From TrEMBL:
Entry protein name: Crp/Fnr family transcriptional regulator
Organism: Thiospirochaeta perfilievii
PROSITE patterns: CNMP_BINDING_3 (PS50042)
GO cellular component labels: cytosol
Domain Cyclic nucleotide-binding, chain residue ranges per copy: 15-135
Single annotated GO MF: DNA-binding transcription factor activity
InterPro entries named among the record's database cross-references: cNMP-bd_dom, cNMP-bd_dom_sf, Env_Response_Regulators, RmlC-like_jellyroll, WH_DNA-bd_sf
Domain of life: Bacteria
Length: 222
């Protein structure tokens, strides 16, 4: 006989893949399969979300805008992980940007059915609470790091993630000022310095990055 105090978490609780594989038919019948091509946006901050997304194949990247405006890649998810649960349990939570890093096969489940699944399978509720706690702690650490960025690092960070998101051609000086909480004079000075360093070019109101690896190295130290 094994006492609870001697058992590991793995012995007490199943992981999400195990729970998913034993999903009752009353829930699995409501899974909706979706396929997303590489670089396609799955969610963006302007969307109202009440769906749990379960990744079966592929990987996604999650982006968030910090308090100072900098856009950062906060995490990456692979098979048998999920996202979208925060909005289901908190209507005031702002949806994050989610982009397919590779081709993805994803199951969608409505928030109503997720809550029904938790009532049937309480271990799922415990697992989601644990994961939410971990994700919130990670996000808090990222926000703290963002406050340590210089203005130049914030500007390069925003340009870098716009580049990764495929939206660099839409970036304007006004947008950068808003995203990084930077006065236009300071932004112009930073752009001039970066052009002299050969890091980027700004011509005809469009940005071009010449040294993406240099910017990546600066940004990823945070």
């Amino acid at each position: 006989m094994v006492h609870i105090g001697q058992m590991t978490r793995k012995e007490i609780f199943m992981d999400f893949k195990e729970l998913f594989n034993r999903t009752p038919n009353i829930i699995s019948n409501h899974f909706v399969e979706k396929n997303y091509k590489e670089d396609v946006f799955i969610l963006d901050p302007n969307m109202k979300n009440d769906i749990l997304y379960i990744i079966l194949q592929g990987r996604v990247e999650i982006y968030k805008q910090g308090y100072n405006g900098s856009i950062v890649n906060i995490r990456e998810y692979g098979p048998f992980t999920y996202f979208g649960e925060m909005e289901i349990f908190n209507n005031d939570y702002k949806t994050l940007t989610v982009k397919a890093k590779t081709n993805c096969k994803i199951y969608q489940l409505s928030g109503v059915k997720l809550k029904e699944w938790i009532r049937i399978e309480p271990e799922l509720g415990i697992l989601i609470i644990e994961e939410l706690t971990k994700r919130l702690a990670e996000t808090s650490k990222i926000r703290l790091k963002l406050t340590l960025m210089t203005i130049k690092e914030r500007v390069l960070s925003s340009l870098y993630y716009h580049y990764k998101l495929g939206s660099l051609n839409t970036v304007t000086k006004k947008m950068l000022c808003n995203e990084t909480a930077t006065p236009i004079r300071s932004l112009n000075r930073i752009i001039n310095d970066c052009q002299k360093e050969g890091i980027l070019e700004y011509d005809n109101k469009h940005f071009t990055i010449n040294k993406i690896e240099d910017i990546k190295q600066i940004v990823e130290q945070f």
